[in-house]
Write a structure and sequence with these properties.
three-stranded antiparallel beta sheet; 5 helices; mainly alpha; 128 residues; Arc Repressor Mutant, subunit A
Amino acid sequence: MRVAAGDARRIQADEDVARYADMFSAIGTEPRLRIMRVLLSAHPDGMVVGDIQAALRVPASTLSHHLDKLRHEDLVTVTREGTYLRYAANTEALRDLLGFLYAECCTRSQAVRPQELVWIGKRPRKHP
């Protein structure tokens, strides 16, 4: 059975929404959001598990569970360095996730003006 181009785009869009929903679910808990912040602060080198644990003061088993969930959703990468595991934020996946939100809120629907989200340097003050 052949799929029409419009149907193929709709199917891909549905799959993208499901993927992004899973990613948001993964970072939608306080511990995982804290992990992402710590890993982003260590970008691009990332951190070994012991350093993440020390920074966040969480038990190893709890940290392992959260890192596995983030890895499963491709939000973090992991590399083995001898006996250590080094985790890093997957900035490509985060860029895709932010791009998805940006496209929906600032391009298609114009719910938020892009200037309100993007700035360099000190954030501008809101005027009354």
